[in-house]
Amino acid sequence: MIDDPEMSNALLPIGFRDLLPPYAQNEDEIVQWMIDAFSDYGYERVSPPLLEFEQSLLLHAGSGIAEQTFRVMDPETHYMMGLRPDITPQIARIAATRLVNSPRPLRLSYAGPCVLVSGAKHSAARQILQAGIELIGIDSPQADAEIIIVTAEAMGVEDLLPPISIDLMMPQLANSIIQTENFDEQQTKLLMRALDRKDVAAVQQYGGSLAGILTTMLQAAGPADRAIEMLKGLDLPADSQQLLDRLFTVVQAVKTHNPLLQLTIDPVEFRGWDYHTGLCFSVYMSGISGEVGRGGRYLSNNGEPACGLTLRPDLLLPLINDDDCFQRERVFIPFGYTIEEVRGLRQDGYILLMGLTEEEDALTEARRLNCNYILQDKELKAVAD
Amino acid sequence: MIDDPEMSNALLPIGFRDLLPPYAQNEDEIVQWMIDAFSDYGYERVSPPLLEFEQSLLLHAGSGIAEQTFRVMDPETHYMMGLRPDITPQIARIAATRLVNSPRPLRLSYAGPCVLVSGAKHSAARQILQAGIELIGIDSPQADAEIIIVTAEAMGVEDLLPPISIDLMMPQLANSIIQTENFDEQQTKLLMRALDRKDVAAVQQYGGSLAGILTTMLQAAGPADRAIEMLKGLDLPADSQQLLDRLFTVVQAVKTHNPLLQLTIDPVEFRGWDYHTGLCFSVYMSGISGEVGRGGRYLSNNGEPACGLTLRPDLLLPLINDDDCFQRERVFIPFGYTIEEVRGLRQDGYILLMGLTEEEDALTEARRLNCNYILQDKELKAVAD
Description:
The structure is a homodimer.
Chain A: H1 5-11, H2 23-40, E1 44-45, E2 51-53, H3 54-57, H4 63-67, E3 70-73, E4 80-83, H5 88-96, E5 106-115, E6 127-136, H6 141-155, E7 164-169, H7 172-178, H8 185-196, H9 200-206, H10 211-220, E8 222-223, H11 224-232, H12 238-257, E9 262-265, E10 276-285, E11 293-299, E12 305-311, E13 330-333, H13 343-347, E14 351-354, H14 362-368, E15 373-376, E16 379-382
Parallel strand pairs in A: 1-5, 7-9, 13-14, 13-15
Antiparallel strand pairs in A: 2-4, 3-4, 5-6, 6-12, 7-10, 8-9, 10-11, 11-12, 15-16
């Protein structure tokens, strides 16, 4: 993607990059596709600013986001402003203030750049691109399912990208099971660590009477159908069964809408879902290491139930080749034609390169500018090499 | 545009704003329209980062841009990084480095947000949106004309916006005329100030033997045809005549391509065009005070001739009404339908609001969510109020 990485590195801080042709356009096309899908399902675009007062930007956010936030002083007020590392807290702010009186469920979408103080795992990028949706004011399995379904629609960029898979998690589940036994602090810690590491031997060592259930849950991780088959047979405490039933209902709802979507379940996963209160999911795409999107259920500002998703269109760029379908054919228009005369070609989808001087050899010029055609006697002629 | 300005002010620093529905989408549509027009004429998108090292961001820029740049320290290198107040210096950097070997003329486009330390005239906005083009590596009247013509195409957003007018200037012209006389420093200063203020009496007082010519030039300001008629008759020094002839040639070229475009000429204007070396222009739109775009000819990095233009799509938002053509019809899909069943409606351009719970009264729900239609027995029924 970078023509000359050394030159790029010499010019820009680590984690920042210039997107050149055709990548800048490809990125724009991918984002536009996502935004259009969001819009088609009633998610209305909002666009918060790049900077806002630190205390409002970080109001409901964990310490992670604060550490990742560049700050500058507002010379007008002498308050500190933060450069957003994440758009989602801004959407929560808008939903709870400016759009507090809009009918619920409130469907909002957003897309835009964010800046991180240091790179995240899987990527050194410090400027990232987010595109996402939030469904605010409703807590139902169908609402969770809608977020997943719309995600699948937004990621199906004209069959240009590989299919996605979505990994479903219920982060409270492991803890809700463990809390039914009176394990001491140390044993709870060791057991949670064993679950986190998917270490079956350690789970059996520290799991006590729950060892069997937890081992089955570990082993159930994988394709949703098989996972559900294994999890159905478990004898769980009521609270835990409720969480699991919710997960099953969401899977069923998603499959009803989109039977082909690849779903996996990771029933004991909990790490990294600190502020979430229900179903969570990671989005993967073959060819990309790490998540290309993530989301889940949480409580928004004012305690409103919400489910949301953030995609990372910038991570998809390496999957789109130079000669892919976003590229159009280029026509060299020799000097002397007017814009009016070639408007039809523009409407037909050609890119028009207007000649700016009387060329001695227009054909050579057309080749030099990588055109596929040249306009001669008001007709398109292919430019052979 | 702001539902509750007080609440907005309480939440965000002055000059920053949340764009809410439908404005965020309207802005996106306008930018997309512009970018598509740029692309249709071979201007390829580049996307530089929001932040880069201060010394590279401000390398060829005047002091104005430095004063408007927020800075943060890069914790990796301890160098200062600037948050761009303007994209054009970044495009010049890219053209002179990463794209130095791409064929000329190089046609580049860009679109994205910029952040200013304090608001500019005509607007308190500190986050602005730029969309523009640069035509690099050629110095010809046809190149100047192309920038103007493509501007007109980019501003003709589906007949949704009022027509633009473009004011043409040749900032070197006044000075090139005055320098032919040996006015002392004081008189030169007084005369330039008189021209700047369009003060005919003062021009006649300080203009000496040039008073007649300069007065005619002042009076010629206005519609291009009339201005050219008046300016043609002047007896100018060779250098000045050359500048004027260039202006005339550009006007002729623009009119050949687009006879309907409204052009004005301001032959003595020079203020604010400090680094420009040839034809400059301001873009106006009725209903908007101040420029909605500006550009001109200059020397890019490495001394390459270049002509560029920057539009401000964010300034156009107040001209687009809520009920304008970007809005689509909304259909409420009662709970129970699958995405597959309603895919045809999506393809027909409807926005689909999926019911998330079994409604007792789906029609009331459809109304509450501002839908125009409801799907009943697989058919669309209008939702009467």
